Amino acid sequence: MAASRSLIGKVALITGASQGIGAATALHLAQLGAKVVINYSSNTKPAEELVQKIGSNNAIAIKANAGNLKDIERLVDETLKWGGGKIDILIPNAAAGATGKGLEATSEEDFDSVVGLNVKGPYFLVQKAAPHMPSGAHILLVSTSLTGLSQIMPNYLLYVTTKGAIEQMTRVLAKDLGRKGIVVNAIAPGPTATALFLDGKSEELIKTMAAWNPFNRLGTPEDIARTVGWLVGPDNTWVQGQVIKANGGMQL
């Protein structure tokens, strides 16, 4: 367990939290004392296993499509009922990755699916949750370091388009919700060794990507989770409207 228990009494809602960075973040915030809502979209087993690891008194798993408005409303309602009528930390982490298609190959269905989960979902989750967030609460949106990478490949077009929207959303929401005392930022991870990220990549490619970083390694979900823990914690009262690049210096 972490030495600090700085989030005792706080309720955190994290979408896409059953695996990868979301799961590491849920576990870390729970270690800091928060009660955590673990949202997932389809696979119940890892979500329930994470609840068991944290403890059922301090975590709950809620299945919902984080890109569907009715599911978002239900997710917020169930969080409020379980968490005592408030949300202190909101992390819209669920997202669709790169489709592998460039401009010419992108279909309307591709566009609607990725934008629906990556932009519409966070937008309306914030809309529904913000009225129940007290002064001092934190919203942390999730971008990517790819938005600032000059060597970006054409097949990442749709993905980085959605993350660019997230970064603009962060800036405007920080001005708007900041008047209510809500702290709004975004985190932009670099290459992170999640099972999803590593899937299908050769050892040679992984070593090449690790070499882009001055530490000569990929990030870990725990690296990102610890950064999140500070950004949404009580010590962060003055970093507002920023996109924090958590990539170990890969891209500055």
Task: Describe the protein's architecture and organization.
Belongs to the short-chain dehydrogenases/reductases (SDR) family. One of its GO terms (molecular function) is oxidoreductase activity, acting on CH-OH group of donors. Keywords: NADP, Oxidoreductase. This protein is α/β, with parallel strands linked by helices and 252 residues long. It has a single domain (11-243), classed as 3-Layer(aba) Sandwich (Rossmann fold). The protein is 42% helix and 13% strand. The protein contains 8 helices and 7 strands; from the N terminus they run E-H-E-H-E-H-E-H-E-H-E-H-H-H-E. The protein has helices at residues 20-31, 44-54, 69-83, 108-129, 157-178, 195-198, 203-211, 221-231; strands at residues 11-14, 35-40, 59-63, 89-91, 138-142, 183-189, 243-246. It has a 7-stranded parallel beta sheet, with helices on both faces. Helix 5 links the parallel strand 5 (138-142) and strand 6 (183-189). Helix 1 (20-31) packs parallel to helix 2 (44-54) and helix 4 (108-129) packs parallel to helix 5. The radius of gyration is 17 Å and the shape is globular. The two termini are 32 Å apart. The model has no long low-confidence stretch (mean pLDDT 95).
